[in-house]
Amino acid sequence: MVRSLATCIFCKIIKGEIPSYKLVETEKVFSFLDIGPLAKGHALIIPKYHAEKFHEVPDEYLGDVLPAAKKIALALGAENYNLLQNNGRIAHQEVDHVHFHVIPKPAPGDAEG
Ligand code: 5GP
Ligand code: ZN
Q1: Residue 50 and which of 12, 72, 86, 87 are 20 to 30 A apart at CA?
Q2: Chain segment 39-87, per-residue pLDDT in tens
Q3: pTM score
């Protein structure tokens, strides 16, 4: 990892200091299940570079993000899902380490859980 912050929970997840359910990992990104899923399979993808906002992430850390999102989407097999990325409190960012959400959207009436 090129840059981490000792107090950041997502940097700790990358280092294995906080447990997570790992999905895809490459040299540049790490992905895992969201602890408070909006739907079953809700995943997060994070660069292995501590930056608060998207525009601060070096390009070399972004190249693996979309392929990881595609792998997760294929694995989920969801017909409907959102790819989402929030920057700043007003835009609903809660964790200050850039992350991309993959959020399945079950059809009304689909079983959850
Ligand atoms: P944001 O609102 O910042 O875009 O999303 C932050 C996400 O991180 C939330 O969906 C929240 O449930 C998730 N999250 C926060 N802390 C942890 C954690 O310690 N482990 C995991 N797996 N997800 C977390
Ligand atoms: Zn971090």
Answers
A1: 72
A2: 999 999 999 999 999 999 999 999 999 999 999 999 999 999 999 999 9
A3: 0.96
Count of C-beta atoms within a 10 Å radius of residue 96: 18
The 10s digit of each residue's pLDDT in 90-109 is 999 999 999 999 999 998 88
CATH of 9-104, one of 3.40.50.2000, 3.30.428.10, 3.50.30.30, 3.80.10.10: 3.30.428.10
- The encoded tokens of residue 37 equal 């899923």
C-alpha distances out from residue 43 to 50, 72, 85, 88, 101, Å: 18, 8, 12, 20, 6
Decide: 112 in ligand 1 pocket, CB within 6 A: no
Structure-block tokens of residue 49: 């570079």
Check if 25 has its Cβ closer than 6 Å to any atom of ligand 1: no
Q: Is the ipTM of this complex over 0.95?
A: yes
- Residue to mutate, 45, 95, 98, ligand 1, most ligand atoms under 8 Å from C-beta: 95
Nearest alpha carbon, ligand 1 atom 12: 36
